[in-house]
Design brief:
The protein is built from eleven helices and seven strands. It is an alpha/beta fold. Strands 3-4-5-6-7 form a five-stranded mixed sheet. Strands 1-2 form a two-stranded parallel ribbon. Helix 6 packs across helix 7.
Length: 304
């Protein structure tokens, strides 16, 4: 049986957020992982764009959470703690967003540190693959774009290859060099699905399957992901997100209904120059769904 959700930490207030059409943006990234803006600049951008509930969800890292909380409170912007955890499922990297947890929880912090541990070795292998096809110095080049060296990723390599003139944009980089079968692609073994959900739940939060439309699973594999996720105590799925199509919005709304999951909404914003959609610019959740924020109202960091 999954662990009971921990009571709200002392810094959490309660905000009345019971509507599906709330302009919540619960998925974005800062320079603490692979975004280009600081937590403070993201808070300001969210506020300016009319976001009514915000979460910073850096990859495998909670180091920006206290900065984001402080910035949000100063702006009168309700905030949920967040992180996007990389897991391996059926041989594919899947992302699980955690929301509303204690960012100082030791098991969560230590688990994320272990997950980050393999990134440097992976990055050096990626650079070696690129060097073998005539692109030397990619590791050093990528490091120039990294706010946190523990979180060097394919995105940082992509920015380097664009700015050095190898490709026209980051989409071309991924297509030519950084996806499975290409010279700069190196897989990484992340946490397990059970690990990620347990860390989130034991820290008092809720686990969310991030952008499920991106994984290109077969129907059988996707069903296995949802059922195993729920067996570990996962409770929500991202329905409205920047990389989903209109058809995906409908499909995953139906799956949220079918599996009786809470629904989440987030832009997956990384950068003003790279992202599919800006903070706060997504369509609302369908009214028939259960918004994830209604279950996490007591975990919202209320404005000062």
């Amino acid at each position: 049986m999954p662990a009971a959700r921990r009571a709200p930490a002392a810094y959490n207030g309660s905000v009345d957020i019971q509507t599906t059409d709330l302009n919540a943006d619960l998925h974005c990234h800062s320079v603490v992982s692979d975004g280009t803006l600081t937590p403070e600049d993201l808070a300001a951008r969210a506020k300016a764009n009319g976001v009514a509930l915000w979460a910073l969800t850096d990859h495998d890292e909670v180091g920006g959470q206290h900065r984001a909380m402080a910035a949000a409170r100063a702006l009168d912007l309700p905030y949920l703690t967040g992180a996007e955890i990389s897991v391996t499922f059926a041989g594919i990297t899947v992302h699980i967003v955690g929301l509303g947890f204690d960012p100082d929880d030791r098991q969560l912090v230590d688990g994320l540190a272990a997950t980050r541990g393999g990134r440097e070795a992976r990055a050096r292998e990626m650079a070696a693959g690129l060097a073998a096809v005539g692109i030397p110095g990619a590791y050093e080049g990528a490091l120039k774009y990294v706010g946190n060296p523990e979180l060097i990723s394919r995105t940082h390599f992509a920015r380097h290859l664009v700015d050095s003139g190898v490709c026209n944009d980051t989409s071309e980089v991924f297509r030519r060099f950084l996806t499975d079968g290409r010279p700069g692609y190196v897989p990484h073994r992340w946490a397990t699905l059970g690990d990620a959900v347990r860390w989130i739940r034991d820290a008092g939060g809720m686990a969310v399957i991030a952008h499920p439309g991106r994984y290109k699973f077969t129907p059988t594999e996707e069903y296995a992901l949802f059922t195993e996720f729920m067996a570990h105590g996962g409770e929500a799925v991202e329905v409205i997100t920047g990389s989903h199509t209109a058809a995906d919005f409908v499909k995953y709304a139906d799956m949220a209904d079918e599996f009786d999951l809470y629904a989440s909404r987030g832009s997956d914003f990384h950068s003003p120059d790279e992202s599919h959609i800006d903070l706060g610019r997504l369509p609302p959740l369908p009214a028939r769904l259960k918004p994830v924020w209604t279950a996490l109202a007591a975990r919202v960091v209320a404005p000062a």
